[in-house]
Amino acid sequence: xxxxxxxxxxxxxxxxxxxxxxxxxxxxxxxxxxxxxxxxxxxxxxxxxxxxxxxxxxxxxxxxxxxxxxxxxxxxxxxxxxxxxxxxxxxxxxxxxxxxxxxxxxxxxxxxxxxxxxxxxxxxxxxxxxxxxxxxxxxxxxxxxxxxxxxxxxxxxxxxxxxxxxxxxxxxxxxxxxxxxxxxxxxxxxxxxxxxxxxxxxxxxxxxxxxxxxxxxxxxxxxxxxxxxxxxxxxxxxxxxxxxxxxxxxxxxxxxxxxxxxxxxxxxxxxxxxxxxxxxxxxxxxxxxxxxxxxxxxxxxxxxxxxxxxxxxxxxxxxxxxxxxxxxxxxxxxxxxxxxxxxxxxxxxxxxxxxxxxxxxxxxxxxxxxxxxxxxxxxxxxxxxxxxxxxxxxxxxxxxxxxxxxxxxxxxxxxxxxxxxxxxxxxxxxxxxxxxxxxxxxxxxxxxxxxxxxxxxxxxxxxxxxxxxxxxxxxxxxxxxxxxxxxxxxxxxxxxxxxxxxx
Length: 503
Known about the structure:
- Helices cover 5% and strands 50% of the residues.
- The protein is mainly beta.
- It has 4 domains: 28-176, Sandwich (Jelly Rolls); 188-274, Sandwich (Immunoglobulin-like); 289-431, Galactose-binding lectin (Jelly Rolls, Sandwich); 443-502, Immunoglobulin-like (Sandwich), CATH 2.60.40.3080.
- The strands form 7 sheets. Strands 1, 3, 4, 6, 9 and 11 form a 6-stranded antiparallel β-sheet that branches.
């Protein structure tokens, strides 16, 4: 549509109105007071070392954007819909010794917002009445939250609730203590134990007590130039993950405990740990390029870019260099993850392919399922897995009945045990041939008779039931079907396919 002069004027006026309706503050919020480290726990402020936060719209439609006032003052901008809400998530902090929660809020129009610390206990809020056109600075009494049932020793989120349709700015969110007492008491009772070692990390369990209610653990291997600090709650075991380590290496860690004022525990713990050596790479892919659509494999050019989808999974993804020419995906805390192909644009066509290939190296993983996604999904079991070695999985695409192979935009993996599994993943690609080395064969070379499925050679046979579930995935000459559930089955070996009925 061509814009006439009248339309242009209207649009320009609307833009000016929108811009003026939500003007950014031109002055900063009042500067917070200088407080001792033991007297403040900062969530968001330029004035103190802060926990940092992760914004969550929690399905509310609220939009967050970081902004600056001048060159140095960072503020958080939020735009909500009617009766909007949102949350800030951060690492658990013990605020039991703090008697105030400070918040600075700026908005052009006056409104009210309810602030709720999330603690795992009862949700108790306090309302802030925000004035128009200036910073509103409030100190909420933490006793009010505690008296209502909030557990201030375990604060891990702050929720902003009951916000009308509004754009506003937030700064200087911190818990603080008005006490003038000087803390000179050091932590005591330090213990540290080794929980587990992985390829590039070591996990410790550390514990100490301190009168402030909080404690810091400082872990170091000075010879290797490694150190890490982790916060914890007095008297509670704290999991400390030492990441960024070198695989196949011995470490000698010292563990110290201190409080926010720097008072250091007299005890020092020593932990000797060794990271696991990296396994040998999986077998190199050998099919010609013309027979493959690659997702992740060093031997092929990727068919499209991919990203790991943020689907709320516990899975931690990193990449390990197993050899100069071989990289694998390392999965920790694996429950599920999704490969988002080509920026989630449904333009990935695998309709000419016959198989999905992947290599999996289970560490603690006991079960793996996979599905391409085009809007629908159908998880298929990858069969029995052998821990501590590479397992080559070749799934016939007929297993994914109901999935449009010409319109794939994601691939989903699901692992067991849920949320704790560890594994290496490599060589993910679609292929026109069984990449495990099965040669093409005529259809009459795979037969079923007398309750036994027979192949032409000692090669991989994959069998699915009528629901598309893999019931057998093994290298064999024959597979007895005694004990199988009655029904229709489909078997594939190379290019040979046979349907049969177990009675």
